[in-house]
Amino acid sequence: MTQQAHALGLRPPCPECPELPDALEHRLRDRMHLAELRRNATDWKGRLALGLALIGPGVLVMLGDNDAGGVVTYTQTGATYGLGVFLPTMIVLGIVAYIVQEMTVRLGAVTRRGHAELIWKRYGAFWGWFSLVDLIVANVLTLMTEFVGIRLGGQALGMPAWLTVPGALLFVTYALVVLRYWTWERISLFIAALNLIFVPLALMAHPDWHGVARAFVGHGWMVPGGVLSITFLVLISANIGTTIAPWQLFFQQSCVVDKGLLPQDIRAGRRDLMLGVIGMVVVAIALIVLSAQTLKGIPNAQGLDADVILHALRAKLGDGTMALFALGLMEAGLIASIVITASSAWAVGEAFGIERSINAAPREALGFYLPAILGTAVAAAVVMLPGLDLGFLNLSVQVIATVFMPAAMLFLLMLLNDRELMGNHVNSPARNAASIAIMLALIACNGLYGVATLFPHAFGG
Predict the structure, then answer these.
(1) What is the CATH number assigned to the segment(s) 59-454?
(2) What is the pTM of this model?
């Protein structure tokens, strides 16, 4: 490695020069690669090469957001309400996700610091611990839904849980600990792209295109039945929770930092994010359309778990479609496990001021890798227990993400308005207004859900 570093010009070729840590050496190599691409971005080929190299954090965070729990939530939504209010809602939630995540792109590129690190340094240990504990608890709960999806998808394909769940845990561990950032990102992007498998599945269901069009031109903007209900509020909260979640803020900002994006890359980071948002929205709509076409009318549809969904799809569309859905469910759980585990590792490393890069060798960064892997292992172990109420677990996790999100957004907003940190890249008044509106909407949604839970007849049952 030392000779390679000398050849790249990372250190003078002299015996007196100290050995660079692996993390720094790999990071410098990545920075030099991006710097070379920037110098060559003088024509369309050079700009295309740079643009492709900068793709990563935005696509990963948004397609990783279409996780196994999200797949089940969107399917529950379509089975419960069909082609209606939730189709156009996905467009709105995509816009919300872009507004929120774009702030992490600017924050990471300008400060070159991760989200957890900034909270600890700007607001102290109390709020640092508060945000870190929230994140880790939410991450472990969310990872449970990912391994549930992997387990049930594998079982539908004839693979036992003792093979799929430990196998997925082993792969996530290998990807995080053994691979270096650039390879980790490229492999993760390949897995994330398989999320699009749900689009042809929706087309294979021969959807009611007239009904889809009506949902987008006004028919779908009415509350089902004309009144709010506990079922509607739970599904609204769950859909919000599967679109924007605290882990996404920590993940994308740290990913931007580890990748080496600079302020001049913010526009490319926005394009990367928009590509991810488009993919997320298209897949979410495809899942709602698929389930509305094939599962609408199933009793207690909002309580469906992945196992029931797979059996229903087999009965309606045959073994081939069910197998593709099972593969998509496993992919969704796997890519989400990869990125959520990374978000935990980055947050812990940043919070305690230890090595915090996927470029770090395990011997140099045990405190960075080990807590994240342990949290993921706990989630994997829990889903191997018999008797779990999987449908309830999935909805509960998505709703918890919605409950935690306003506090996470408050820290994000304060950081984005800190001129000492952000300089000319502080939030504009329009961005602040949009962000505050999102926070208030989240709080209102949480409040309505709480009232509906305590007084179920207050909104029509």
Answers:
(1) 1.20.1740.10
(2) 0.86
